[in-house]
Specification:
This protein is 34% helix and 25% strand. It is built from six helices and nine strands. The strands form two sheets. The chain has a six-stranded mixed sheet with strand order 2-1-3-5-6-4.
Length: 178
């Protein structure tokens, strides 16, 4: 990999990030595409999120991915979030455009795309989602957007799942089962 004074920076913020394979995957992809970019994982503790974002902006980063524990907290530091990110309530990708921080959530699209590649078509389907954790928000939104007929959350803690089902109730009724 050749870095120059014109190399643009991308990265991943979260804590911890040492385990992330993102740099191992992203840098060869950038190189194969002949793009003069570098991608690095940067540990940013919860209490340092605002300072970390200011630093990335000051250093001219073009964008970054966001992982735990910052996917929700980062939203208050953005200039704008796309509709899916606002509905899901979490951001996993930040793009810097004209000095503005734009937030996106690509988890729903990624999940649905992978599901469709297996041959499962979501339109008019009856779906059971096991669990109501952080990833479930994006999965539910993806299923709603992809036209699932009915969605049931199968969980151990119905109260937690009901809160999530209620969050999406204006888009689709989601049944909760323990």
């Amino acid at each position: 990999m050749k870095f120059t004074g014109k190399t643009k920076d991308l990265g991943l913020i979260g804590y911890p990030v040492e385990h992330s394979l993102s740099p191992v995957m992203q840098n060869p992809a950038l190189q194969a595409a002949a793009l003069d970019y570098s991608y690095i994982a940067m540990p940013v503790k919860e209490a340092e999120l605002e300072t970390g974002i200011k630093g990335l902006r000051s250093l001219g980063f073009r964008g970054w991915n966001v992982t735990i524990p910052h996917k929700v907290a980062i939203m208050k530091y953005l200039d704008e979030a796309d509709p899916a990110a606002r509905i899901i309530g979490a951001v996993n990708t930040v793009k810097v455009e004209d000095g503005r921080l734009l937030g996106y959530n690509t988890d729903a699209v990624g999940f649905i795309t992978a599901l469709h590649k297996t041959g499962f078509m979501t339109k008019d389907s009856h779906v059971v989602v096991l669990g109501a954790g952080g990833a479930a928000r994006a999965v539910l939104w993806g299923l709603i957007e992809a036209g699932a007929e009915s969605i049931c959350l199968g969980v151990r803690t119905p109260e937690t799942a009901q809160a999530l089902a209620d969050l999406f109730s204006s888009y689709k009724r989601i049944q909760v089962e323990d």
